[in-house]
Amino acid sequence: MIFPRPRLIWIAVAAFPVALLPALLYPRLWGIWLVCLALTVLAFGLDVLLSVPPRMMSVAVECPQRVAVGELGVAKVTLRAPRSAGQVELLLDLHPDFVHQPIRAVRLQPARPETLDIALQALRRGALTVDEAWVRWTGPLRLAGRRKRVPIHRTVAVIPSLKAVRAAAFRYFGAQHFQSGVQVERFVGAGSEFEALREYVPGHDIRAINWKASARHRKLLTQQFRAERNHQVVLAVDTGHLMSEPLDGLARLDHAISSALLLAYVSLRLGDRVGMFGFDAGARAWIEPHGGLHAFSRLEALSAQLAYSNEETNFTLGLAELSSRLRRRSLVVVFTEFVDTVTAELMVENLSRLAQRQLVVFVSLRDPSLDALALGWPKRLSDVQRAVVASEFVREREGVLAQLRRIGIHCIDAAPNAVSVQLVNRYLEVKRREQIA
Known about the structure:
Elements: E1 2-4, H1 6-25, H2 32-50, E2 58-62, E3 66-68, E4 72-80, E5 86-94, E6 104-108, E7 114-121, E8 126-138, E9 144-159, H3 163-172, H4 175-179, H5 182-187, E10 188-199, H6 211-217, E11 221-226, E12 232-238, E13 246-247, E14 250-251, H7 252-269, E15 273-279, E16 283-290, H8 294-304, H9 315-325, E17 331-335, H10 345-355, E18 359-365, H11 368-375, H12 381-406, E19 410-414, H13 416-432
């Protein structure tokens, strides 16, 4: 496609009054403006002929197969032309769930390819597309512009972010720390699973003395215990419409999945069995609890398939279905969201019913902006009104959480950047106290 550049338009606008002035002084000179018009058209046509034709402008696009939600991926675009094309501008037509990228420019030299890295940052999970590449450049006179559209139609799989999981693996399960026994020592002494025999020293619990072993070795030996392994941990993720709301640039569902995968990794490394359950208006996904790190890839694959839903969450149907699938007492971590006490009534009722047989941890994501509105210093009357409404929401939220705590449910209500740490710490505390068994 050929189009005029701003320089051509400015030349035409400036040349018209100059060419018209002689005609005002002497009418027979009216043809001068026709000469100026012809010269302008001739210059435009010459610039078109000297510019690189679209068929000779080579555009190659290389897209990643997968990108983690919220993290940066890179699409590489290579431009090549047989002769100088001056400054070439590039724009990728991306799926709306990708962060919009500005126009990129590069000077293209003859037969010398230039590669541009275009950032791909997804706001939601799913199969997102890179649709087209638009390239435009000018002729040597910079009067005419050329444009080329290159269909791409590449699909990029946007998967849950494992950044927090990788950070936790490095922090808690690094080779040096793991070999030195840091994680094992964390649970020694307060559990119910036999760990080892240790020589008695003053201060040890005399009830832990193993008299038979002491008689064989002719010295007092005490039994050392550790937290029991092979517990069941079930991650129940609500995919209803409230979980699709954005929070800190990502949907609540994506924050919940990242925290769930982090807890799954820690639980698997500590010897427990982990399963996952997704629900909204009904049961959407289920994986039986399995142990071993090989189970993490299955959990990751299932979490990538948890779709955003516009339906209202049916806690009665979803939690009843989950309860029927659990054949032994488990730690059930429910990731969900609520608005006020009215919408939370059925949620509290069904969670209390689930807590009669299982140990339940309730996880919700707190919106920092809501607290900022409630506690912010008002400058106008409208600020006071917003603060009153926000304070009412905060008060009702605290009331629901207090009601859940009274019925024995562990509650975590934290900002997205803090919920993962609090969740892992609560899991370790529950495991240390042997509350699952």
